[in-house]
């Protein structure tokens, strides 16, 4: 393999061939572990007592072996979801919704909300039945689908949504306490006092009780959720019975409602019982003011925000994924049945309220259900149990999400206290942190205001869940095979659009702030999170990019290529990157947004009798790590071949895809200079110990005194192969001297030089041929980049014969033509004449001699020792001229003549002399690129 600075192929090196690979270890050492973990997949359904006869991934979750997975569908999913969806809404705020929006709009809002929920549940079911679901619930599902950046940001917002939801439930619980045990009928006497800070005290007390429950027995709460739900259902049934049996009555307006209440006239609202007139009056909207939030005006958005906040508990079952015996079965069936059950309950409650209660009472007493109930105590019990259980569920859910974020190291060491603060699988530190944030939310005070924030945050979480499923379905990932069959990309799309639109309908400011916070978290986690570099979760972004790249590659047609849009697509052939780091970086600058492939040939045979793996597979990850270390935008191509020359032919043919294939091949120069290890050199910007594995150096290179594995003849033949394969070629020498940092800060280095003359066959037309134009194109590209931009581009004009009188003062015809060419090509460069070229050098006498060593040679022409010596002296003289002009040059572009043809006499000798003359020509120059282009790459037209 050819590399810069005379590095050699490391093929068949005992150090390299004995290298073990982490990939091999994972494939072999991990197989038994995988068989143990997923062994049940390969058993017949009858042996696994599976009457359905099919495999469900969630049933083999790693946690099955743990005693913590004890919950079934009803206790673990249905009950938590139903309780969370009842929350503070069912007994406290349905009257507020019906009284302001009217029955028609209320039913419409419930349908909209539940359609959004239903489609989101479909997405949750699809994800949860597509693999083993572990602890962390929705965060776990989203992060393992969208990747650490999106998953971490959405998980953070979902954590905050649970915090706000807990605050909402606690506020509802405190409101129920005040209504039943606080001052009544305008008096100041009650079992408990009332006021803003008294309410905050009650909320804090409830929050602290929840904290103690979660710290002591959170699992017990999950197991007793059936009993809690039973209590709530009984209380709700008492409400239905009361609506059907209670007659007309007057109900007092709460004392805190100063919109209609005053000291002298105590306002009363009418409860009419079942009455068609009452129903007719409540069919249409009558938006008023919210007496719990300083009389703020009520509208469709406010009402829907309150409504949706009460039904956001669809993820409560998924949050219990770590405790479910069979998450992939329990989550879909339990969640869907709970959604249907609560929907029917809400519709029945809304219709009965509209048919029995006046609009005035609905708008001005949110807790009127107590006075109109046959057993008022049942409403009190229902409010307290529903809100307390919902708040407890949200507190548990938020602590589990925070624990999952900490274990995944999404925020690095910032959440280490959560991991360390775990006792008997209970995340004590996460629970306390969640409790503290809930306290901050409670300072907001108004339940309706908290409800809007809660709705927006949950909607954003639902949007991300639908987006995850939509992305997977669009990309057609083969491994996305959920056992839940009622999911399509249409359901995910409708759910995503619905949540996005309604989020902004509820409150555009809160929605904008949430989306902005989410995007900021995405960028922050992408650049700073350790999880984004290390977590192997699978990222939807990779699948989407693959899908789009494949589509556009098929659309990219090489038959439609045009010179105006030409760009260099580089294949850099490298033996050992240790010795050519500056060249790797330089080619990265020169690609100008084009394809960049780093290719390597490993010499060897892939024998049928050889049981070992392909060594290029084992080394591929090492080369990817090199790309990361070098910070270049390149692909890697490795091949195994019997010879370097044959391997390079393979790389040229197979590198790239479709119309994106390399058009320019770059090789290091073949000389005797000692290589330099840039990974070990003290002052090297590429210094690293990353590629030293227990004393074994990865990417070894030729040491001093070691024989080259590639002959000079083979090297010249490779150049000829490249040109015959219709590719441009560049030979790079002295790039171990390139120091971009020095170029950036040094005032001494000022130029990029172009010598557009074929030294082997100089003509006045040289600056205008294809090779010279290709050379100037590459120089122009380099001169566009920030580090190189301050350098001046110089073009040297070498006139070898006497010229006629100039047509313009101080300007020869060749110089004039070159000046016009540069102008038409929009290249800003200065032209420099070389007077000594025509005076001191007999170019015409050497031209025929030098032609012997190129493709222009006569196959019957025999070399003589005298001609060889004269050619070397001539090259040394040319080299001296160039060196005299290169004092302040950063990089030099020179004309590479085509090598001698294989059919010529004394081919091997001519190859040696051809290479020797190039060595003499470039001796002791700055970093130099010998260029040979085969096609026109510049355009003077629009």
UniProtKB/TrEMBL annotation:
<feature type="compositionally biased region" description="Polar residues">
    <location>
        <begin position="1"/>
        <end position="23"/>
    </location>
</feature>
<feature type="transmembrane region" description="Helical">
    <location>
        <begin position="74"/>
        <end position="98"/>
    </location>
</feature>
<feature type="transmembrane region" description="Helical">
    <location>
        <begin position="374"/>
        <end position="397"/>
    </location>
</feature>
<dbReference type="InterPro" id="IPR018491">
    <property type="entry name" value="SLC12_C"/>
</dbReference>
<feature type="transmembrane region" description="Helical">
    <location>
        <begin position="453"/>
        <end position="474"/>
    </location>
</feature>
<dbReference type="Pfam" id="PF03522">
    <property type="entry name" value="SLC12"/>
</dbReference>
<feature type="transmembrane region" description="Helical">
    <location>
        <begin position="486"/>
        <end position="503"/>
    </location>
</feature>
<dbReference type="GO" id="GO:0006884">
    <property type="term" value="P:cell volume homeostasis"/>
</dbReference>
<keyword id="KW-0812">Transmembrane</keyword>
<dbReference type="GO" id="GO:0055075">
    <property type="term" value="P:potassium ion homeostasis"/>
</dbReference>
<dbReference type="GO" id="GO:0055064">
    <property type="term" value="P:chloride ion homeostasis"/>
</dbReference>
<dbReference type="Pfam" id="PF00324">
    <property type="entry name" value="AA_permease"/>
</dbReference>
<keyword id="KW-0813">Transport</keyword>
<feature type="region of interest" description="Disordered">
    <location>
        <begin position="1"/>
        <end position="28"/>
    </location>
</feature>
<feature type="transmembrane region" description="Helical">
    <location>
        <begin position="228"/>
        <end position="247"/>
    </location>
</feature>
<feature type="transmembrane region" description="Helical">
    <location>
        <begin position="339"/>
        <end position="362"/>
    </location>
</feature>
<feature type="domain" description="Amino acid permease/ SLC12A">
    <location>
        <begin position="83"/>
        <end position="571"/>
    </location>
</feature>
<feature type="transmembrane region" description="Helical">
    <location>
        <begin position="197"/>
        <end position="216"/>
    </location>
</feature>
<dbReference type="InterPro" id="IPR004842">
    <property type="entry name" value="SLC12A_fam"/>
</dbReference>
<dbReference type="InterPro" id="IPR004841">
    <property type="entry name" value="AA-permease/SLC12A_dom"/>
</dbReference>
<feature type="transmembrane region" description="Helical">
    <location>
        <begin position="110"/>
        <end position="133"/>
    </location>
</feature>
<dbReference type="GO" id="GO:0015379">
    <property type="term" value="F:potassium:chloride symporter activity"/>
</dbReference>
<feature type="transmembrane region" description="Helical">
    <location>
        <begin position="154"/>
        <end position="177"/>
    </location>
</feature>
<comment type="similarity">
    <text>Belongs to the SLC12A transporter family.</text>
</comment>
<feature type="transmembrane region" description="Helical">
    <location>
        <begin position="509"/>
        <end position="528"/>
    </location>
</feature>
<feature type="transmembrane region" description="Helical">
    <location>
        <begin position="428"/>
        <end position="447"/>
    </location>
</feature>
<protein>
    <recommendedName>
        <fullName>Solute carrier family 12 member 9</fullName>
    </recommendedName>
</protein>
<keyword id="KW-1133">Transmembrane helix</keyword>
<feature type="domain" description="SLC12A transporter C-terminal">
    <location>
        <begin position="780"/>
        <end position="935"/>
    </location>
</feature>
<keyword id="KW-0472">Membrane</keyword>
<feature type="transmembrane region" description="Helical">
    <location>
        <begin position="297"/>
        <end position="318"/>
    </location>
</feature>
<dbReference type="GO" id="GO:0016020">
    <property type="term" value="C:membrane"/>
</dbReference>
<feature type="domain" description="SLC12A transporter C-terminal">
    <location>
        <begin position="582"/>
        <end position="672"/>
    </location>
</feature>
């Amino acid at each position: 393999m050819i590399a810069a600075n005379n590095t050699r192929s490391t093929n068949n090196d005992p150090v390299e061939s004995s290298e073990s690979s982490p990939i091999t270890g994972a494939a072999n050492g991990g197989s038994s572990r995988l068989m143990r973990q997923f062994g049940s997949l390969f058993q017949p359904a009858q042996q696994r007592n599976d009457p359905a006869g099919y495999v469900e991934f969630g049933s083999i979750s790693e946690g099955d072996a743990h005693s913590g997975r004890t919950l079934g569908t009803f206790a673990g999913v249905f009950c938590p979801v139903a309780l969370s969806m009842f929350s503070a809404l069912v007994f406290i705020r349905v009257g507020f919704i019906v009284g302001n929006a009217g029955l028609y709009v209320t039913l419409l809002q419930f349908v909209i909300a539940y359609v959004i929920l239903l489609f989101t549940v479909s997405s949750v079911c699809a994800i949860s039945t597509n693999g083993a679901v572990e602890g962390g619930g929705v965060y776990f599902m989203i992060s393992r689908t969208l990747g650490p950046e999106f998953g971490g940001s959405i998980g953070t917002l979902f954590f905050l949504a649970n915090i706000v939801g807990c605050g909402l439930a606690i506020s509802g619980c405190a409101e129920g306490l005040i209504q039943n045990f606080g001052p009544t009928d305008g008096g100041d006497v009650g079992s408990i006092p009332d006021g803003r800070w008294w309410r905050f005290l009650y909320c804090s007390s409830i929050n602290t009780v929840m904290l103690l429950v979660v710290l002591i027995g959170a699992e017990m709460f999950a197991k007793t959720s059936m009993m809690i739900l039973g209590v709530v259902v009984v209380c709700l049934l008492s409400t239905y019975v009361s609506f059907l049996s209670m007659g007309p009555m007057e109900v007092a307006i709460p004392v805190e409602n100063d919109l209609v209440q005053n000291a002298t006239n105590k306002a009363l609202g009418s409860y009419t019982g079942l009455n068609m007139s009452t129903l007719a009056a409540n069919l249409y909207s009558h938006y008023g003011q919210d007496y719990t939030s300083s009389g703020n005006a009520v509208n469709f958005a406010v009402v829907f925000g309150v409504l949706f906040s009460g039904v956001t508990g669809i993820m409560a079952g998924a949050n219990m994924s770590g405790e479910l015996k069979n998450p992939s079965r329990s989550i879909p069936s339990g969640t869907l049945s709970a959604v249907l059950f609560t929907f029917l309950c809400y519709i029945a409650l809304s219709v009965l309220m509209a048919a029995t209660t006046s609009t005035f009472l609905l708008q001005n007493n949110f807790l009127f259900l107590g006075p109109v109930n046959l057993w008022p105590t049942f409403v009190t019990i229902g409010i307290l149990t529903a809100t307390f259980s919902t708040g407890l569920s949200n507190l548990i859910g938020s602590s589990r999400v925070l624990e999952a974020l900490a274990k995944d190291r999404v925020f690095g060491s910032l959440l280490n206290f959560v991991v360390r603060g775990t006792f008997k699988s209970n995340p004590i530190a996460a629970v306390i942190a969640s409790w503290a944030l809930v306290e901050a939310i409670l300072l907001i005070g108004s339940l309706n205001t908290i409800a809007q924030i809660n709705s927006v945050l949950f909607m954003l979480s639902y949007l991300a869940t639908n987006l995850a499923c939509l992305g997977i379905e669009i990309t057609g990932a083969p491994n996305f095979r959920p056992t839940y069959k009622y999911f399509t990309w249409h359901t995910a799309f409708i759910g995503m659009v619905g949540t996005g639109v309604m989020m902004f309908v509820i409150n555009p400011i809160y929605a904008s702030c949430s989306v902005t916070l989410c995007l900021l978290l995405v960028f922050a986690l992408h650049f700073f999170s350790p999880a984004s570099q290390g977590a192997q979760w699978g990222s939807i972004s990779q699948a989407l990019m693959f899908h789009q790249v494949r589509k556009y590659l098929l659309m990219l047609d090489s038959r439609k290529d045009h010179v105006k849009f030409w760009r260099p697509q580089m294949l850099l052939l490298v033996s050992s990157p240790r010795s050519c780091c500056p060249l790797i970086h330089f080619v990265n600058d020169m690609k100008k947004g084009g394809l960049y492939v780093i290719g390597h040939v490993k010499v060897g045979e892939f024998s049928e009798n050889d049981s070992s793996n392909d060594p290029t597979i084992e080394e591929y990850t090492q080369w990817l790590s090199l790309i990361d270390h070098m910070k270049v935008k390149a692909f890697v191509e490795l091949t195994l071949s019997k010879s370097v020359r044959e391997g390079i032919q393979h790389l040229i043919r197979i590198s790239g895809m479709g119309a994106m294939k390399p058009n320019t091949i770059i090789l290091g120069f073949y000389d005797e200079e000692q290589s330099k290890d840039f990974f070990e050199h003290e002052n090297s910007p590429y210094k690293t110990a990353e590629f030293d594995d227990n004393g074994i150096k990865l990417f070894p290179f030729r040491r001093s005194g070691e024989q080259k594995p590639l002959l000079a003849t083979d090297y010249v033949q490779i150049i000829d192969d490249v040109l015959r394969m219709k590719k441009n070629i560049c030979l790079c020498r002295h790039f171990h001297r390139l120091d971009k940092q020095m170029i950036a800060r040094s005032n001494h280095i000022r130029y990029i030089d172009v010598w557009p003359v074929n030294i082997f066959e100089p003509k006045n037309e040289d600056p205008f041929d294809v090779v010279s134009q290709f050379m100037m194109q590459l120089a122009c590209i380099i001169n566009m980049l920030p580090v190189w931009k301050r350098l001046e581009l110089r073009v040297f004009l070498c006139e070898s014969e006497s010229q006629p009188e100039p047509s313009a003062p101080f300007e020869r015809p060749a110089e004039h033509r070159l000046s016009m060419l540069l102008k038409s090509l929009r290249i800003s460069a200065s032209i420099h004449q070389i007077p000594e070229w025509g005076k001191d050098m007999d170019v015409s006498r050497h031209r025929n001699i030098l032609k012997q060593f190129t493709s222009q040679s006569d196959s019957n022409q025999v070399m003589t020792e005298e001609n060889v010596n004269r050619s070397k002296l001539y090259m040394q003289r040319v080299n001296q001229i160039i060196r005299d002009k290169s004092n302040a040059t950063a990089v030099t572009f020179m004309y590479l003549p085509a090598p001698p043809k294989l059919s010529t006499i004394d081919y091997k000798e001519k190859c040696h002399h051809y290479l020797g003359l190039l060595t003499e020509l470039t001796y002791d120059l700055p970093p130099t690129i010998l260029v040979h282009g085969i096609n026109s790459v510049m355009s003077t037209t629009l």
